[in-house]
Amino acid sequence: MEKAASNRLNLALLSPEKRVEDLHEASAVANVLVPGINGYFVASPKHTDLIAEIGAGVLTLLGESNELVQQYFVSGGFVEMAEGNTLKVLADVIETPTEVQAERATSAQKRAMDRLKARNHNTDEDILDFERANKALARSQYRLDLLGQKK
Fold first, then answer.
1. pLDDT class for 31, splitting at 50, 70, 90?
2. Largest Cα–Cα distance in the chain?
3. How do residues 96-123 score in pLDDT, each as one tens digit?
């Protein structure tokens, strides 16, 4: 990967299934809003080296004036910032806005809400199902959020 200008990031977005982006290394990506497991954070040029776990959410690529460059739905995995300007997003799932299916996300959202309403609070299995349903609900909502912001 070739070095980016000091105010831009070298960026690679990878999942087990595909390499989504490597082209932003020469473009105007200056900041990336990353959904970490403890909330969103911004990766910027000259950021300290780090490795962080990714949660479900919308990964947002921003230009030098914080204008929107591109957005993706991501879930699971890690982000690595190294050498000050190199950001690697290694996600379990990466979807472009055109890959997100609104009908599927809406259906998943409804199923998750139904599971949350039907729980009885009595068993360990119910607690586990509650956690799974909450995560499924969050993933479906982030996918729908991405579609709402799509150009």
1. very high
2. 57
3. 999 988 899 899 999 899 888 877 666 6
Sign of the Cα torsion 141, 43, 94, 37 reads: negative
| CATH number of the structural domain spanning residue 63 | 2.60.15.10
Q: What is the pTM of this model?
A: 0.80
Report the DSSP pairing between strands 10-14 and 39-43. Answer: unpaired
Q: Which two tokens stand for residue 44?
A: 């910027």
Residue numbers of the domain that contains 90: 10-95
What is the C-alpha separation between 11 and 6, in angstroms, rounded? 13
Q: Which of the residue ranges 5-9, 35-39, 48-52 would you say has the lowest mean pLDDT? A: 5-9
Does 120 share its domain with 136? yes
Regarding whether 32 and 82 lie in a shared domain, the answer is yes
Domain boundary among 95, 111, 137: 95
Contact 35, 58 (CB under 8 A): yes
Residue with tokens 């799974």: 132
